[in-house]
Amino acid sequence: MSRRRRSQRSGSDSSFAKNLFMSIQRFTKLQTRKLLLSAFASGLAITANSQVIKGTVTSKDGSLPSATIVISKTTNGTVSDLNGGFTLNAQHTGKMTVTVTYSGYASKEIELDVKKGINELGVIELAPAEGTLADVVVKGTMAPSQMKAMSIKKNSNAIMDVIAADAVGKLPDRNAAEAVQRMQGVAVSRYHGEADQATVRGTPFAWTSTLLNGTHLPSANVTGSRASVLDAVPSEMIQYVQVVKAVTPDMESDAIGGAINFITRTAPEKRIFNVSAAAGYNNFSKNGTYNGSFVYGDRFLKGKLGVIVSGAIWDRQWGTDSYEVTYNTNLADPVQQKSINSLLMKRYMGERQTYGTNAAVEYKFNAANKIFVRGLWDKFNDIRPVYESYFDFNNNRYQYNYRYSYYQTKLFGGELGGEHQLASRLKMDWSVSDFCSSYYLTTPPTNDTKGLPIATFRQSVPGGFGGRSSDGRKYISYDAPDGVGDDPMHIAAHLNNPSEVMDPTKLSLQQLVLTQLDNKEEDRVAQMNFKYTVSPKLTLKAGGKFRTKSREGINIASTVYAKVGGDPIMLSDLNTTSFPHPNTFFSEIGNPYNDVIMNPLTKDQLFNLFDTATLRKNGFRDVSPATNAALIYNGHENVTSAYVMGEFQATDKLKIIGGLRDEYTATTLNSSQVSTVKDNSTNPATTVTTVTPITTTNNYNALLPMVHFKYSINDNANLRAAYTRTFVRPNFADLNPGQSTDLTTSIPTITIGNSQLKPTFSNNFDLMGEYYFKNIGLFSGGVFYKDLSNVIFTDKSYATIDGTDYLVTQPKNLDHATLFGFEAGINKRFDFLKGFWSGFGVEFNYTYCHSQTEVNRLVLNADKTYSTVTDKTALPNQSRSLFNAILFYERKGVMVRLAGNFRGRSIETLSTQLGPNLYTWADNNFTLDASATVNINKRLRVFVEINNLTNQPLKYYLGDPNRPTQVEWYSQRGQAGLKWDIIK
Length: 984
What we know:
Elements: H1 15-44, E1 51-59, E2 62-63, E3 68-71, E4 77-79, E5 85-89, E6 94-102, E7 105-114, E8 117-125, H2 132-139, H3 143-155, E9 159-164, H4 165-169, H5 176-180, E10 186-191, E11 194-200, E12 208-212, E13 215-216, E14 238-246, E15 258-264, E16 272-282, E17 287-300, E18 305-327, E19 340-366, E20 369-392, E21 397-421, E22 426-441, E23 452-460, E24 508-535, E25 538-563, H6 603-609, H7 612-617, E26 620-622, E27 632-649, E28 654-679, E29 686-714, E30 717-728, H8 732-735, E31 739-742, E32 749-752, E33 760-773, E34 777-801, E35 804-829, E36 840-860, E37 866-873, E38 881-891, E39 894-903, E40 906-909, E41 920-922, E42 925-935, E43 940-947, E44 954-958, E45 964-969, E46 973-983
Parallel strand pairs: 1-8, 12-15, 28-31, 32-35
Antiparallel strand pairs: 1-2, 1-5, 3-4, 3-6, 6-7, 9-14, 10-11, 12-13, 14-15, 16-17, 16-46, 17-18, 18-19, 18-45, 19-20, 20-21, 21-22, 21-23, 22-24, 23-24, 24-25, 25-26, 25-27, 27-28, 28-29, 29-30, 30-33, 31-32, 33-34, 34-35, 35-36, 36-37, 36-38, 38-39, 39-42, 40-41, 41-44, 42-43, 43-46, 44-45
């Protein structure tokens, strides 16, 4: 099994599909330029039989997406796009009236005499309607943004939720992941206090497709996952966020959980210029923070040329105390598996910097043709000095680590595209793009090999640690077989010799490690779409996309130097500095570990230890594992997709959207197999390692039918139903063909990727209802069900090869899984109350998910044979309950929001060795944030933001909440500032 080299095709591809998509690929590469030139020429000379009405709908607050435009006394109409633009086929020439309507605004009727060709209405600006709603629109700080989001949702073909830029700006959310966490059914992961990944309906993060303007974001995720890391994207770069829960055929369909589409800013119809500046404080690090942003947009050349530029910077100090426990799960005895191996007391105290800029230019040649260029550059720097003190109970010793890391994340690239009205009934759009994401370490700066430098000191405890049960092991009291154990959050040394405390004069430098991390992923994409209006009731759409992805990974490969000679080097012998804020070390649990606080190395001292001459002088030898070669890989993936879909207005109330999408994926990966064996010809036996290059491929086809039904009960209510088939591709790290074999351990081990993994497919069924209040509000709810096949998980199992038992770790496919649930949400203003109380309102949404799959586990019997046990369990990362609760007040230029976010517990790692009782879980997590804004005048406002009001910790545990594996605290952070609309 481990020697297999030859590729096998998985999935449901056929020779017909392969030939079809190879033809599309060749066409895309060779004919795109010719087709675009032809299309542009066609647009410049629209046929004499064409009669098209074009325009852009705006308000004083910017463009109005999903405005309704109808030719009076007919059913012929359309809705505006995200930029407010619309195209309406008039069907005939002559005098007619066009009516433009938008919730909260006065409708406008425009009389015109339609001629053959294009009839340009220009910019149509709507004014707020009279009455109570108009007062909300004019004076409310969130209302215009909410109306835009609800209008997009109401008129969309897909089942989706939407949030607009102004709403993002009113919440204390500084990156893209934090911005999207407020939306119904969205869950986020938090990394040291800040959200960094998002997923829909609590599914595994790789099951949610993260898009930028409708195209996949490349991911340089450290785990090799396809889940995009979003902490590099400032929230100020975003115009809209669409959370799509049931996709349509014209959308990328590797989205079992759903898709999150971040739409960047585009050129406005009139000049805008605003700036913001804020300063803040982090209560953990006791340091200041600052944040600033700007947005400038304008039009030139009589409106033909539009530009927009935005930028943001967020610089902050941060800190974390992390309490981490490991258990002896490698032992055979099920009781002793729960005994404590080590306790780690860790403090982070660093700096984070987020920078971003977004620019877009568009040029309208005429009413039928425009092109655009847009690009972004985002950077996230995460500087982390880390101070780690250990109780190593199994080995009766202390350990102290100091590390200084400089993680960097980049996301940059650009897109060129165009939109063309080829005829009165035919539109075409196209784009080509190139985006790159990278995640890497650059320390120490003077070393040829970059990575994460770690210095490890150890001190033996001859008297040993006390507080052990009768079997001689350490337990928390919950697991202790005879009741002798510690409080799980106050695990103590219980020294048998009280004088053997952790001491810098006794901590000896034993090991230096440089952990390498350098992941890069680049996507180049070309796509084209055609839309043909057959009649006012039927529209057809078809298109194709080709994406070529390159991936390079050095995934946590370590250079290790062990001290094998020379004089001992004590921590006290080296240059050190003060431990940061020692009086607050684990203050949340009563400061029980002040006696293990050590003054750390200076940064320069740490870097100097890795100098080659210093290493030799002090008796260090390179003992790096040969298996590093298996962790270095590169690959290419080509995806060719095509779709056809139709939108049919079956009746005045019923609309049917259906079609078919096909995606053909061809993946090639290059890595190495590493084998380590004992050479018994020597005495004592030495080990011999061989490294063999390996290349594998994985090709498959995904045929994806979809149908949506949208029934308009009345002007304020929709009922939606959908069947969609979606899928997710295997993660690159799982496909890595690299294999390492180690025969030097007590149980020989094989660690191997699986280049033959099948993609996970899902048949999805959704039923959703929406009711839109007349005063800018919404009530929605529905149910969903997913039938899944080939779910991927990491398997640990035993295998016998040539008479030898091996422990094999490899990602594999599960046969079947299911997921069902329901969701409901309400956004309601209390305008039925009087005076002051009318300013209150509430936003609340809740999602319930239940998933189930079966995992086969091998159990070692007393006679040393194995039997199979089947465990029923939830999917990894699947939270059963998610909710957001926001209480807000908006009146007379004052806005206050109190926002709570809850993510229920979820399994983080499955284990086919240990079973459900020892799975690793993420515990329930509830965070509470607040923000307030006061309008000084029409252009200037002040704001205040506070995060994590309740100092909610992040907690993981092994099987039971009483058995913690990691608990982190972050304290509160906040800022106050000004936003000035210089030109509005």
